[in-house]
Amino acid sequence: MKWNAFSSAGRSSRGGLGHRVVQAGWRWVQRTGAVTAEQPGGHRFGAIGHGTKLSFPQGTVFGEPWIRLGAHCIIGEQVTLTAGMMPDLDLGPEPILTLGDGVVIGRGSHVIADTTVTIGRDVYMGPYVYITSTNHSYDDPHEPIGKQWPRMEPVEIGPGCWIGTGAVILPGARIGRNVVVAAGAVVRGEVPDHAVVAGAPARTVRTWDAEAGWQPPLRTPAPRPIPSGMTPEQLVALGELGETQGL
Questions:
Q1: Cβ-based neighbour number of residue 39 at 10 Å
Q2: Mean of the pLDDT values across residues 171-188?
Q3: GO: which molecular function terms (predicted)?
Q4: What is the three-class DSSP state of 32?
Q5: Per-residue pLDDT reduced to its tens digit, 195-237
Q6: What is the pLDDT of residue 247?
Q7: Which residues of 147-160 are buried (b: 16+ CB within 10 A; e: fewer)?
């Protein structure tokens, strides 16, 4: 069978058109399915601040009246946000899950607030972070663990923290201000301000002191800050200059 350039081009053109239609349709679905204060999509949160967006598709979301989301939060795709052990419970007058302004939750993460979970402003999380205020108990060796009543403790994450990919924050964790939680770390208990924790279970691997600075000292110099007053056009030109000079 001889190859026909015209028929091949026709099939390619039709395939390209279908691809563009599917991509455009999916972008429309993502825009339309996103949850915002102006477009709640059936969700009735206790509060949802201006500029906050829950990307589509969302993960499991329930207990919305007891969930308060600050302004300018970014919630990635397939993120689970729950308040209470199951839907349709009356959890009382106070919020259970609270996010401060500017919180970013990465794709596929889970925040399970059976009791109080508080996340401070400007906390950034990578994808697949797991935060829970509930843990299974195994006191009775004869009863299946999943059937034993769980233990619950509040969780608090201070402002300005970075939570790395795949980190797990367990019940009772109290994480201070501007803390780095390394990827894959499993955190429980108290973490002081300005610390770096890593490992499973997590331990403190670096701390900051007002006089001595970071201990142990950082191995790389601090990034040079962007000069104040620079325009976006100047930043783009600076980046292009760096590429041409191999910087």
A1: 13
A2: 97
A3: acyltransferase activity
A4: helix
A5: 999 999 999 999 999 888 999 998 888 888 777 787 878 777 7
A6: 45
A7: eeeeebbebbbbbb
Q: Which residue has the tokens 């760096």?
A: 242
27 contacts: CB under 8 Å, gap ≥ 6: none
Structure tokens at 107: 């794709």
Residues 6+ apart with CB under 8 A from 188: 170, 171, 172, 173, 201, 202
46-92 residue pLDDT tens = 999 999 999 999 999 999 999 999 999 999 999 999 999 888 878 88
Q: Which ranges of the chain would DSSP assign to H, the alpha helix?
A: 5-33, 232-244
Give the ranges where 58-205 is alpha helix by DSSP (H).
none
Please pick, among 19, 50, 136, 194, the residue that the annotation labels catalytic.
136
| Distance in angstroms (rounded) separating the CA atoms of residues 163 and 178 | 10
Told to judge if 136 belongs to the known catalytic residues of this protein, a careful annotator would answer yes
Structural tokens at position 154: 């509040």
Q: Which residue has the tokens 């969780």?
A: 155
CA count, 13 A, side-chain hemisphere, 56 = 14
Q: What is the pTM of this model?
A: 0.83
Distances (CA, A) of 19 to 10, 27, 199: 14, 12, 44
Q: How far is CA 30 from CA 25, 49, 55, 127, 219, in A?
A: 9, 20, 7, 19, 42
| Residue closest to 128 by CA, chosen among 209, 185, 72, 174 | 185
What is the Cβ-side half-sphere exposure of residue 140, based on CA atoms within 13 angstroms?
Answer: 9
Rg of the chain on CA atoms, in Å: 23
Give CA–CA dist 141/70, Å, rounded.
43
